[in-house]
Design brief:
The protein is mostly helical and about 350 residues long. It is about 70% helix and about 0% strand. The protein has helices at about 10-40, 45-70, 90-95, 110-140, 150-160, 165-175, 180-185, 200-225, 230-240, 245-270, 275-280, 290-300, 310-340. About 25% of the residues are buried. It comes from Alsobacter sp. KACC 23698.
């Protein structure tokens, strides 16, 4: 076999040593993998690659889940499970001890039910307006408009930001001496204490959450719109069908599987909202924007008396709700794939 020709160009002469080094590294990595494959066989190799991820998932997901369930059946204020007495389902009974579930004030653990009530209000408003604005935005961005690529990027950009960063930006805008009040006073108006009035606080919590996540759901709906065959719209246009009728009779039915996915994902995200609202309002004023996840966090870590058992029971209940919503989402996804 003849030797390879010497490198002729400057680029080849520079890259030749790196290519040799790369080959040595790859051969060094191949050697142990070939040895392992020879011992366990090629058919067992996928399990080897899955093992680190399975170990990580079990250590940081399943193990904390099991520990949390164990805490929910214990009482006292000790940290270690061995020092905590078993109390059965009394923590769950404590949470559900209510005269009227629609009136948090009649419940023994009124803050929990206030959080449930606020979470229900927050999720209902967020999902309705999130889906509505996302659908409207997706329809507009699917049209042949100037700068369409730019606007698609702009609408998706907030999704890339950390929820804490989003909340801090809007808190700087909405606080008493913030940018929005500066504009209002500059126009001759009065300052509005957005974080002091309960109605305004909930409004801005919902608004900021929609602003931060709308781009993700818009992208899902936009993908659904682009999957609709254009010849259907061309046939409707030839028949002289009005745009409103085309939207109601063609676009919405064909987009319905994507809409269902968006609704379920928005529900799951809304129920487990914590960081944005916590940084923005801190659950205030009072408990006007206190959500369930914040109640769990404060019960376990922030209160003067840390009640890990009660927080564990509340988180198990929340987990069951999220598990149910996840099953719905999987069922919808499978139904969508089957219809496709």
């Amino acid at each position: 076999m003849s030797a390879p020709p010497p490198p002729s160009t400057l680029g080849e002469r520079v890259s030749a040593p790196f290519a040799t080094l790369w080959g040595l590294i790859m051969r060094g990595l191949d050697a142990p993998m070939r040895w392992v494959q020879g011992r366990i066989g090629a058919r067992r190799m996928p399990y080897l690659f899955l093992a680190p991820n399975a170990l990580f998932f079990g250590l940081f997901v399943f193990l904390p889940l099991i520990i949390n369930i164990a805490y929910s059946f214990t009482g006292g204020s000790a940290l270690y499970l061995s020092d905590r007495p078993y109390v059965g389902a009394s923590q769950y009974g404590h949470l559900f001890d209510c005269g009227n579930y629609l009136d948090p004030g009649s419940c023994r653990e009124d803050h929990f039910w206030r959080g449930v009530q606020n979470t229900g209000t927050f999720v209902a408003l967020q999902v309705v307006f999130m889906v509505g604005f996302s659908l409207l935005t997706a329809v507009v961005l699917n049209m042949d408009i100037r700068g369409r690529g730019f606007f698609r990027a702009v609408y998706f950009f907030p999704v890339l930001l950390s929820p804490v960063v989003v909340a801090l930006i809007w808190k700087w805008i909405l606080q008493r001496e913030g940018l929005l009040n500066a504009v209002l006073t500059g126009l001759g108006g009065q300052k509005i204490l957005f974080f002091v009035e309960p109605g305004w606080a909930m409004f801005w919590a919902v608004f900021v959450s929609i602003w931060a996540h709308m781009g993700f759901y818009t992208l899902i709906l936009l993908a659904g719109l682009q999957a609709i065959p254009t010849d259907i719209y061309e046939a409707a246009e030839m028949d002289g069908t009005k745009r409103s009728r085309v939207f109601a009779r063609i676009t919405l039915p064909l987009l319905w599987p994507n809409l269902i996915v968006v609704i379920v994902l928005a529900l799951i995200k809304g129920v487990q909202t914590f960081d944005e609202v916590f940084v923005l309002t801190g659950g205030g004023p009072g408990s006007a924007t206190l959500l369930v996840v914040q109640y769990i966090y404060e019960t376990a870590f922030s209160n003067q008396v840390q009640n890990f058992g009660l927080a564990g029971a509340a988180s198990v209940i929340l987990g069951l709700v999220l598990f149910t919503l996840t099953l719905v989402q999987l069922w919808v996804s499978r139904k969508k794939d089957a219809s496709a």
